[in-house]
Amino acid sequence: MKKRLLSILMLITLCVMSFSACGNDSKTEEETTTEAKKSDKDDKKENETDKKDEPVGLMLHYDMTLDEAKNNTIVDKSGQNNNGTIKGKYEIEDNVLFIEDGGYVELPKGMFDGENTLTISMWLNNYTGAGNYSAMFIGSTEDLPQNYWLFNPCNPSGVMKSVMTSSVSASAPYNTEVGISPSKNAKVTGPSTSIGWAHYVTVITEENITAYYNGELVGSVDIKRTISDYGEDLVSYIGKSSYNDPTYVGFIKDVKVYDKALTANEIKAEYDLVEQADKNYSESEYENPLIEERADPYIIKGNDGYYYFTASYPRRGGNDKEGYDRVILRRATTLEGLSDAEEICIWDESEEDSVFSYIWAPELHYIGGKWYVYFAGSASRDNVFDVRCQVLVCDSDDPYTGNWTYKGMFEGMEGDSFSFSFFSLDMTYFENNGKHYVIWAQKPGDSNLYMATINPDEPWKLTSEPMLLTKPEYYWEKVRYAVCEGPSVLKHDGKVFVCYSAAGTGPEYCVGLLTADADADLMDISSWTKSDKPLLTSEDLYQEYGPGHNSFTVDENGDYVFVYHARSQECFDGECGFEGSDPLVDPCRHARLRKVLWAEDGTPILNGVSE
Question: Is 485 assigned a catalytic role?
Answer without folding.
Answer: yes
